[in-house]
Design goal:
Elements lengths: L2 E5 L2 E3 L5 E8 L4 E10 L6 E6 L5 E3 L7 E6 L4 E6 L8 E10 L3 E5 L3 E5 L2
Length: 118
Amino acid sequence: QVQLVESGGGLVQPGGSLRLSCAVSGSGFTIYNMGWYRQAPGKQRELVADITGSDSTTYADFVKGRFTISRDKRKNTIDLQMNSLKPEDTAVYYCYADIKRTMRADYWGQGTQVTVSS
């Protein structure tokens, strides 16, 4: 069974930093892309950043230069370092992984709340 568990969310003041982590547990699978989406109240879920198996990264324009995604393939984890946080970054952040077991599918974490407020 595959599980994704996120950690690291919380409350931070504008201009502050947070680091989110996501770990994939289980066995007998291959992980391709991994990444982070977010969903603010009343808005659609949107891509924040992702990283391929060859460590190629993609960032949404609204986080370029502020967020950095990284991956540890040995541990099956990804991190999202978030700097210069803004109130509009407030959202639930979801980790996903593109995984092949018998079939290839996207798996999701439960989400972690990030609140940027003074």
